[in-house]
């Protein structure tokens, strides 16, 4: 969270004795106050006030959806056939597979993971160009779990005023009971958060039973303990400090935004000068200027970062909109128009200050570029997934010897073929060699017309290629091709036939 500003003037340190002449006369030096303590105030605990309104309702809906997806997805079932895992989303480290419903990714499909990361970054850039740190305010895991922990805290200890009284009260049986209950529920949520994470790496119902009977692998318990500690510490205690100090995004997004991006802003042209509600009414009755802001600090007490949005856009602001709901509630009670605080742009703000009309440029080169990149990367990944092959072939030529001359003058080359079968059924492939019309192919321990490869596996075959004397007279390109007669799917690989 932001460091609290001290109300005392900042002290100036006295200069070393040997350099005293550079700071003026003795009387001048005597007027300089001495350093009496730290230049920074101690951190103050933030107790946000509960609010109701449009943005708070949106946050509740997104929180329920996000937590529901995280906690329940491991229990979704997806039938893939006999012998295949039935969990819809599973990262199977033992088999080296990543299952997402009907999609199965192998280790060599890491390019899809890279594509997803690039796509996520571009979407984040687009969101920032349109509405600032809207990701931070609504969808960031830190925000979601902090909101959940705050809801538990309000349910047990009460709203802001009650929590402040409890903080200031001496320790008693009631205070210990309330604090103990709150932290116990926090730890339960944190433990289940860590437990839900490990369920993505094994069959969820089976692992839950193993965890309950203490038969799960030690790695599962270790991961749960680590995630329990981090969730409890980050969402329960550090809260806004994570967003301000630990997260790099507030600093990065400042370089990606511009004057046309929507941000939470205070309309100082309408809110100033500030006065109490009673004094503002008297000033208006007398025909004197009076702002709509009544300096009630409702926006400050509702802010989870503890900032005053009326001081301008700040790095600590996560654009959650709770200050908007708090201010709108006050304006409605006073019979004044809502929107004193709301999503606005710096360009629109400057236009109003100069007497101009509203300025809105959501569609501009920056957003068009990001949207085009998102569509391009997403479209390419989708096309690649829909057209990807479930068969792969690689060839490795023998290195020593590269060729063998037989007694009848023919030349033999040895190759190792590796066939990848990504389908959940056993398949038999027919092998053919292209490029040497007079060649003959033998498969050690098998026949070229039926090379068996188990389901969801790779299989190596030792292949010998023979050519009669004089054909070829030197090294020549060679192409191997396998075909699945059942599906017609093919795969090929290039190499060279070595000859004297």
UniProtKB/TrEMBL annotation:
Q: What Pfam families has UniProt attached to this entry?
A: Fer4_18, Fer4_5, FixG_C
Under the heading PANTHER family, the entry gives: FERREDOXIN-TYPE PROTEIN NAPH
Show the stretches that span the lipid bilayer: 54-73, 110-131, 184-202, 214-235, 368-386
Against NCBIfam families, the record matches this protein to: ccoG_rdxA_fixG
**Keyword hit for Kinase:** no
Q: Which domain of life is it from?
A: Bacteria
Which organism is the protein's source? Answer: Methylobacterium dankookense
According to the UniProt entry, its GO molecular function terms are: 4 iron, 4 sulfur cluster binding; metal ion binding
Q: Where is the 4Fe-4S ferredoxin-type domain?
A: 283-312
Q: What is this protein called?
A: 4Fe-4S ferredoxin-type domain-containing protein
**UniProt keyword list:** 4Fe-4S, Electron transport, Iron, Iron-sulfur, Membrane, Metal-binding, Transmembrane, Transmembrane helix, Transport
